[in-house]
Amino acid sequence: MELERLDFSIEKLGEAHFPSPMKGTRFVEDGDRVVFHSHPEKIKAYLEKGQDPPALELAGPRELLFFDPSRVRCGIVTCGGLCPGLNDVIRAIVLCFHYHYGISPIYGFRYG
Questions:
Q1: What is the pTM of this model?
Q2: pLDDT tens by residue, 52-64
Q3: Domain that holds residue 53
């Protein structure tokens, strides 16, 4: 399958109106992209054909949010067997939501 035929756009929930509570960070714009290929010769081939290389939306904090962080409640559910490193991922999510966005409480659901 050719990458230039794939749609890498991400559907938005709606307009973001709530200012992010994160301070002292570099915010990411919705139009920011990261190129899919890491090899310069592949990128060059697209440019020589007059095409934009395939690119994905850049992840990161946005200056305006769709949800009001003061009203958000968060729950984390995991399903399946053991997954090495999953506890670290859950911990990072909890710490980020609590300390960066002020979300509390954050729920965990036992037994999926």
A1: 0.71
A2: 888 999 999 999 9
A3: 17-65
